[in-house]
Amino acid sequence: MKYELILEQLKIMGFEPILVDDELYKFAYKDMTLLLRNDNDNERFLSISIPFFYEFTGENKMTCYETVNTVNLLVRYVKLTIHDEHVSAVFEHRLSDNEDLEELLESMIHALSTSLSVFLKKMEGEKIPYLDYNPEEDDDETDD
User: Fold this and answer.
1) What integer pLDDT is reported at residue 38 of this predicted model?
2) What pLDDT does residue 43 have?
3) What global pTM score does this model have?
4) In whole angstroms, what is the distance from residue 53 CA to residue 87 CA?
5) DSSP-based helix, strand, coil % in the chain, nearest 5
6) Is 7 exposed, middle or buried (0-12, 13-18, 19+ CB in 10 A)?
7) Distances from the Cα of 104 to the Cαs of 13, 27, 75, 82, in angstroms?
8) CB < 8 Å & 24+ apart, contacts of 69-72
């Protein structure tokens, strides 16, 4: 599938992809900058990422690694990766012939946004209801 179709679909969806270099486009969603990688060697490979969205320190290094692992287990298709002291998110997909690009791109962007949100909330110590549910804390019995 030609990347011109993907770029056109992003424009139809209201995004404004900007060419960064020969194989890279950037576009904005909410407060995020997303990158679309054009793999000239493989037209069927689609990759959208949120690069270097979090920088961690030695103090929170283990928490960061644990949170990356948790999000990777929780959100399908998105991979959080660590490069040096930065966390990035990527969604990679192999395109088929009759792909519904609007549905696919919406799913990819939503999954990336969700991963980022869950990661940041967990790093700030917030509880995620569906993730941090503890049945022992859900005691309906009251002492009268």
Assistant:
1) 81
2) 83
3) 0.85
4) 6
5) 35, 30, 35
6) middle
7) 12, 16, 16, 25
8) 70/122, 70/131, 71/115, 71/118, 71/119, 71/122
Q: Which residue has the tokens 């993730």?
A: 131
Does residue 33 register a pLDDT over 70?
A: yes
d(CA 115, CA 88): 10
Contacts of 80 (CB under 8 A, 6+ apart): 68, 71, 72, 87, 88, 89, 115, 119
Helix or strand run (H / E) with residue 7: helix 3-12
Give me the residue label for tokens 């049945």.
135
Q: What is the pLDDT of residue 104?
A: 96
Helix (H) or strand (E) run with residue 54 in it: strand 45-55
Phi then psi for residue 18, to 5 deg, are -120, 130
